[in-house]
Amino acid sequence: MRTNLPLNADRLWADIMALAEITDPARPYTRRSFTPLFLEGRTWLAQCFAAAGLATRIDTAGNLIGRLEGRNPALGVIAIGSHSDTVPSGGRFDGIAGVAAGLEIVRALRESGTRLDHTIEIIDFLAEEPSEYGLSCVGSRGMTGALDGGMLSLTGPGGETLRDALRRVGGDPDQLDQARRDDIKAFLELHIEQGIVLESRSLDVGIVTSIVGIRRIEIVFQGEADHAGTTPLGLRHDALVAAAATVSSVRGVAEKLAAEGPDYFVATVGILTVEPSASNVVPGRSRLVIDARTTNPALTKSFVEAIDRESLEHAAAARVQRASFETLSDGAPAACDPELRSALRESARDLGLEESDLPSGAGHDAAFMSRICPSAMVFVPCRAGKSHAPEEWASREAIAAGAAVIYQAVMALDRSIAQKGRAAAR
Amino acid sequence: MRTNLPLNADRLWADIMALAEITDPARPYTRRSFTPLFLEGRTWLAQCFAAAGLATRIDTAGNLIGRLEGRNPALGVIAIGSHSDTVPSGGRFDGIAGVAAGLEIVRALRESGTRLDHTIEIIDFLAEEPSEYGLSCVGSRGMTGALDGGMLSLTGPGGETLRDALRRVGGDPDQLDQARRDDIKAFLELHIEQGIVLESRSLDVGIVTSIVGIRRIEIVFQGEADHAGTTPLGLRHDALVAAAATVSSVRGVAEKLAAEGPDYFVATVGILTVEPSASNVVPGRSRLVIDARTTNPALTKSFVEAIDRESLEHAAAARVQRASFETLSDGAPAACDPELRSALRESARDLGLEESDLPSGAGHDAAFMSRICPSAMVFVPCRAGKSHAPEEWASREAIAAGAAVIYQAVMALDRSIAQKGRAAAR
């Protein structure tokens, strides 16, 4: 890895560590969206934005935005961002690294005396992680017109609606149209990989090809809660027997689809519950939630058809009812913009960094942003792929390298997008 | 079914219904051992015992005992009993029917002017159902010398020890030897079947051949809680994948053993938990509890060997550790006494009742009593096999028929046991 980077790795690192200190002390690292700690973190961030010479505001969707006007504001905005909220007992890097990288890029630009034609915005999106209101990516949904009235009516702690919570953190749910943007020409996000591909291949950065679509399906099997001693096997209606066979089907079908390649496919049963959950009672009810992710929606279609069929067969074999087979959520994959990916790749090569294309198995604000503007992401390696946990770790050098890739790409894009704009205007 | 029975079916039924009324009104039918409601039920029972001419006491193991002295007390005791405690939200019959049947048999004997040579005792065993102290069959364990110091140190609500709870309900944990009996020559217990064999075959009574032994095994699989989006299938350590395959193995192996016949075998996974239980996290840990029951311990041995082997294979396939494979409890099957079974069978036939041998898949106080005296059980049909639930139901006629079988058998045994005693004395 090159060490002579066009920005200050120590200053970037110090920002990330400082923000990490703003945590629930009882369960580091926790800075849940909409909480007083989250607002404390944002106050600190806003001060940093202002100190870096950025005009700082909160838009009506609750996003914290720092803006550095370009020489030619009519060209529009190049935006860099991620999020500053965390999951409960999460890590120091997920989200925060991308916001801090944007901040450091602006500082480095100013210090080098570089003034871009495009306006630069650093965005701290509101509530990227699933919030207490049952919704993720609240801010990027709002900025892209995907935050609707039904979502705003979701309730969280104490019965507060998301609508009221949004108002409480400085947004305006009645003026969401003002948050919608058509002036952003490129969106770039740095994020830790949350996987082990970069680390295991000793790569410096990953250029994200596509962000997976996520389908969540709930299946409920309804049997009969009989006495585990007196009910012969042939007379049972054991809901867990059907659920367990379905877990095996999910793994088996997913392995088959993933092996077909080249598209990314994973599926997981992360939740499985049994009722009444007593050692001497045959399970009368079992519920499981499947999370299926892919860069190719055709694979999800095949997967859902196979699991629909096989779970019905398992229900029949166990003599139980498949009481529910419901899609809880269904997000489409988002392809990253080829031109932005190309700019990022060239930037990495210029910097002497080892890079590779790779898909993102996790959802990100960039997936929503891709609905309104060319978007792309840079992944940096994180130790053992661990994320959403206190041991989440990325090195100072890795983050600085990822930020430098975006820095160089922004300078290149400032020229190329402007040229393209002029060419189109001719 | 014969209707001219040697006892009063209405009076027996009225007792059961009256005791059922002594319940937690918020969740009928609940009369948990050691609670004020349980003691209220026992006060009512003790009054009934006394009204039937029984000398009533509570032994040092907390059993309520009503005694009718025989003409030749040296011959020893024929005991009849069951329990008056319930599971939470249980039924009106499980246990109670057996105590009420004993009471009615004594009343019928007295009304017919019959005086037996043997002393008769009606026993309401303490806490047959799993108590809040984590132990079942407290009273029958105490009467048979199977209640040890470790059990007495178990704690329940508010940290009270079982030792103190036993004292509170009239027992004496420091004098448990006094509860141990060597004078009981026969023990008979009436109970609802808690299964559907009698109902489905239109039988009046079941003569229990053997009470299953119960082995409980806990298995814990330890994997790694990884991101469900970013961790490729081949790199996962998914604990639920191993646990689900083990559930399938338990069912498969149990079906094979049960099909071999003639012995009874069932196995159940009634508890399965997943951690951290989030839709977007690969399960890092999964725990399951297996309940295996049989009348033939060799089958349990085969079962445990097969599950030990297969669960290790499933762990290896899922690349997780089988962190625990532990026997939580292991009770031996208890065979019912052939002579008592024979007496019950002849009694049923004399009464014109349809009977059949059948194993008991549930545990009962009779299993402990079989350690100190010849013991046997009569099952009566219950609707749809439902038990441990408010809808538990047995008909007035069914219970009276079962009680009549015991009534006739007691009279026959009073003669035959005495003869055997005289023959042995010659």
| Oligomer state of the chains in this structure | homodimer
Strand content of chain A: 15-25%
Q: Segments of chain A where pLDDT lies below 50 for 5+ residues?
A: none
Q: Sheet bearing the most strands of chain A, described?
A: 9 strands, mixed
Task: Determine the mean pLDDT of chain A.
Answer: 95
The N- and C-terminal alpha carbons of chain A lie at a distance of 42 Å
Largest protein interface? Answer: A-B, 56 and 57 residues
Helix content of chain A: 25-40%
Number of strands of chain A: 13
The total count of helices of chain A amounts to 12
The topology string of helices and strands of chain A comes to: HHEEEHEHHHEHEEHEEHEEHEHEH
Principal-axes geometry of chain A comes out as elongated
Structural class of chain A: alpha/beta
CA radius of gyration of chain A: 24 Å
A few lines on this structure:
Chain A is of the alpha/beta class. In chain A, 37% of the residues lie in helices and 22% in strands.
Please provide a written account of the structure.
Two copies of one chain form a homodimer. By secondary structure, chain A is an alpha/beta fold. The first copy, chain A, has helices at residues 9-20, 36-51, 96-111, 138-143, 149-152, 162-168, 197-200, 239-260, 297-317, 338-350, 365-369, 396-425, and strands at residues 55-58, 64-68, 77-83, 119-125, 184-192, 205-211, 213-222, 265-275, 285-294, 321-330, 334-335, 355-360, 375-380. In chain A, the strands form two sheets. In chain A, strands 1, 2, 3, 4, 5, 6, 11, 12 and 13 form a nine-stranded mixed beta sheet that branches. In chain A, α3 links the parallel β3 and β4. In chain A, α1 (9-20) runs antiparallel to α3 and α10 packs across α12 (396-425). The radius of gyration of chain A is 24 Å and the shape is elongated. The first copy, chain A, starts with 8 loop residues before the first helix and ends with a helix. The relative contact order of chain A is 0.17. Chains A and B meet through α8, β8 and β9 of A and α8, β8 and β9 of B.
